[in-house]
Amino acid sequence: MFNHELLKDKRILVTGGGTGLGYAMSRRFAELGASLVLCGRRQQVLEQAATELRRDFGAEVAAIACDIRDPDAVEAMMQRIWEDGALDILVNNAAASFIARTESLSARAADAILGVTLHGALYCTLAAGKRWITDRHAGTVLSILSTSTVTGRAYTVPSAMAKSALLAMTRSLAVEWGPKDIRLVAIAPGPFPTAAASANLNPAGRQNSAGHANPLGRSGDPAELANLAAYLVSGFAGYINGEMIAIDGGQHLRTSGAEDLLRWTDEQWQQLRKT
């Protein structure tokens, strides 16, 4: 299935595509023949990623700095993209999260998570969707969610709320936009090692649950998620609509992934706030 032309002639926007899992997916899409638009807040990071993709795969890659929390900035980005041709696929990957005792969160801290994870994905989906509908152009939206949509997750409540809302968006628009040849699908990753996840969700002093809690006894390889993403946005998955697929080794069947934090002391939480 994964032949080098699987995504030929497909134009894909990946939010947060310059780092982490977004970059892993971008590499796989490029390897399979897609042209790409990478979006993020740091132009230098995006340009470096774009240079690597062009060098390694000969891919056509554009890098556009955009704060997706700003609907006007999203609209301007989409207008710029469409000037060179329509998108075929949107990957809502950009997100923010960190662990904290929920009662200690300020409104600003909560909004920092909701702004990127929920509002940004919604703005991008609406901006792409209205153009697809106007142009009668088929489209696919892939949103990267979380198994917290199934289990809930203590100490990352704004993130769990945002991801659950995006699952509702995926299921709702799958029905509303399906007749317009627009599919919406989602992936719920479990533990995948990235720099951002390690810094924000697994600080010093936190027990790594991937080994003892995961039925497969390991974390995920980003290439495994990238392959699932490539399948879901390809024509091979053309009859999958409104569904979320968990890729976590079965861990959410045993744990939400936050139980170890119930044993943290006040001193540990205070140290986390300092760092």
Summarize the structure.
The protein is of the alpha/beta class and 275 residues long. Helix content is 45%, strand content 14%.
Tell me what you see in this structure.
The radius of gyration is 18 Å and the shape is globular. The longest helix has 29 residues, at 107-135. It has helices at 20-31, 43-57, 71-82, 107-135, 148-151, 157-177, 195-201, 210-213, 222-233, 266-274, and strands at residues 11-15, 35-40, 61-65, 89-92, 139-144, 182-189, 244-247. By secondary structure, the chain is α/β, with parallel strands linked by helices. The protein has a single domain (11-274), classed as NAD(P)-binding Rossmann-like Domain (Rossmann fold, 3-Layer(aba) Sandwich), CATH 3.40.50.720. The protein has a seven-stranded parallel beta sheet with strand order 3-2-1-4-5-6-7, sandwiched between helices. Helices cover 45% and strands 14% of the residues.
Category from helices, strands and their pairing: alpha/beta
Q: CATH class, please?
A: Alpha Beta
Please describe the biggest sheet, giving its number of strands, its sense, and whether it closes into a barrel. 7 strands, parallel
Shape: globular
Question: What is the assigned CATH homologous superfamily?
Answer: NAD(P)-binding Rossmann-like Domain
The number of distinct helices, counting runs of at least 4 residues, comes to: 10
Q: Estimate the strand proportion.
A: 5-15%
Share of helical residues: 40-55%
Give the helices and strands, then pairings.
Blueprint: E1 11-15, H1 20-31, E2 35-40, H2 43-57, E3 61-65, H3 71-82, E4 89-92, H4 107-135, E5 139-144, H5 148-151, H6 157-177, E6 182-189, H7 195-201, H8 210-213, H9 222-233, E7 244-247, H10 266-274
Parallel strand pairs: 1-2, 1-4, 2-3, 4-5, 5-6, 6-7
Helix pairs in contact: 1-2, 1-9, 3-4, 4-6
